[in-house]
Amino acid sequence: MNSIFRILISTVTMAVSAAAFAQTSVHGPVEKAEKLRQQYRFSEAVDLLEEALESCSAADSSAIEDALLPARNGESMTDFCVVASPVAKRRFSKKDFFLWLPMADRSWRSVPNVLDPSSDAPVAATFVREGDEKIYFSAPDEEGMRNIYMTMKLDSVWTAPELVDEKLTSSADEICPLLSPDGKHLYFASSGLYGMGGFDIYVSDWNESTREWEAPVNMGIPYSSPYNDYLFMHTSDGLYTIFASDRECPGTDSVWVYVTDFDSMPVRRSVSDPSEAWKMSILNPSGSSRAVSGTEVKMPSDPKMLDYINALRELKAMKKRMAEASGSLDRDRASVADMQGAEKERLSAEILDREMELIGMQDSLKKKERELQAKELDLFAEGLVIDPSVLDAATASNDGERTTGGFSFTKNTMGGELAMTILRPEPSFDYSFMILDEGRFAEDNTLPEGIVYQIQIFTSSSPATVKRLKGLSPVFMRRAGSSYIYSAGVFRTYSDCLSNLNKVKKLGFKSAFITAFLDGEKITVSKARTLESEVVHLYNVTVVPSGGKALSEAEKTAIHAVTSADLSRTVADGVVTYVIGPFSDKAEASSVVSMLRAAGVSSAAMSEVRQ
């Protein structure tokens, strides 16, 4: 062993032995920053962690940066807090809190079930209403991380679950998807997207033109918090917004359910005081109306602010008229079923006319909402602050706003066991060269593009049986005139093919030989080897983490000590692998493997990057 290699091994060993100290050296500031973040003191947490980052070692920086990200996000999100109007709140057991949400009765199904086979789901149920033909749900993938999937009903069966969209998927968990009644908004919680820590609440809007879900947006304070927030919904009557959170819970066995007035155009403002941000987030109902008819209101003098208030008044009045019209229609629809003759025809025609009017009102409402949003942006651009108390009082309806007594919690019943037949995709065929107890023919005889080598084993005047393969897999078949030609394996390099030739011959195929192809067309082996030599070869170093899912601190330290090459993470067939590289020099990649193994990372291996 040369002296340089001994020095490298010594460096790695020292770095690995320091890993335990690295964990404790960052523990103090990270733990303190966590407490500051939970108190909405985001700026203090950021300052503390940035100071620790300046003086820490490379091994410590990862843990500090992980804690720094949600603190910075929280600091940014305090600039856009929603001024919500709390109506009610109540604490429930985490085991069944979801049954207290105003949703369809018997729509929650216990887990494990056919959609979510996990017994440790964050919420112990899956939301599936009777009659649904499209279901969004959360379930663990092969790696154990939760993603959002969708399945659709086709006659009597359901399609194989598919991931909803790449934009809605992070490196952590996504849970509790709830689709809006119109199917245009998907609300869910994630612990891996842009957020303040724990599970934050997000909304993704359906893009009708692209037929895709848009990038999710964090709902912000007070709906999201440094704690765990989920199950966001608007009630079907358009009156309330409801969600759950453990932000005020002393332990892990309960959650609070918060109810606020629904507001399609919520006022947002900056909050610099952490105590005020916390007060906004605990959403304590006042116990009385926010505004009462006859209250004297001091109106703002700024013309743009007055214009905004008048526009908001019009919007609220329009929403009230729509709610009344919709309620009247529902009552008449129920009545017409019991009518007969001319009276039924008259009312049916009237209902149709009013339905068309309601569609026009909906279009006008959307236009008014866009106009109000533009006015609000103008106010923000000019630095004009919207006072929520003045705004509430100034836009109150003549008969006063709803009191906290307008909402009451009612417990639903758990639904029955899910009975669904789900189409499962067939497992993909493994084209790796293998010798099995029973041979296998390739599912697809099409060769991949580029240079490919195969081992031709025999020709036959009639189709061969599996028994003739003697355990070889995969075996490809080609027609040549009246003959059938059989070849084993798909090899990208001549050396790889050559190393397996004797294995094939030992099975009894003594006349087996190597053939070559370029983009599926047969070429001479010598030409293939010439072309192969002109290809630029790259190499990766792979490490399978000892813990199964993530690198240990010792493994991270060893990798950073021996190389500065890029480090990425992949998952294949449920196996997590970390990839270092690529390296253009095979000797360099081999040296990294040797040093990592010497440092105790026994799973380190080298692989060639396919070009």
In a nutshell, what does this entry contain?
This protein is an alpha+beta fold. It contains 13 helices and 28 strands. Helix 3 packs antiparallel against helix 4.
> Biggest β-sheet, characterized?
5 strands, antiparallel
- How many domains, in number, for the residues? 5
Ends apart, CA distance between termini: 34 Å
The helicity comes to: 25-40%
Estimated share of beta-strand residues: 15-25%
Computed over alpha carbons, the radius of gyration is 32 Å
By DSSP (H or I, 4+ residues per run), the number of helices equals 13
Shape: globular
Mean pLDDT across all amino acids: 82
Question: Which stretches are poorly predicted, pLDDT < 50 over at least 5 residues?
Answer: 1-24, 288-297, 397-403
Category from helices, strands and their pairing: alpha+beta
Counting DSSP E segments of at least 2 residues, the number of strands comes to 28
What can you tell me about this protein's structure?
The structure is a single chain. The protein is α+β, with helices and mostly antiparallel strands and 611 residues long. It folds into five domains: 3-79, no CATH class; 83-282, no CATH class; 303-401; 434-525, Alpha-Beta Plaits, CATH 3.30.70.1070; 538-609, Sporulation related repeat (Alpha-Beta Plaits), CATH 3.30.70. It is 33% helix and 24% strand. The protein contains 13 helices and 28 strands. Strands 9, 10, 11, 12 and 13 form a five-stranded antiparallel sheet that branches. Strands 21-22-19-23-24 form a five-stranded antiparallel sheet, covered by helices on one side. β15 and β16 (254-261) form a beta hairpin. α3 runs antiparallel to α4 (42-55). The longest helix is centred in the middle third of the chain and has 41 residues, at 341-381.
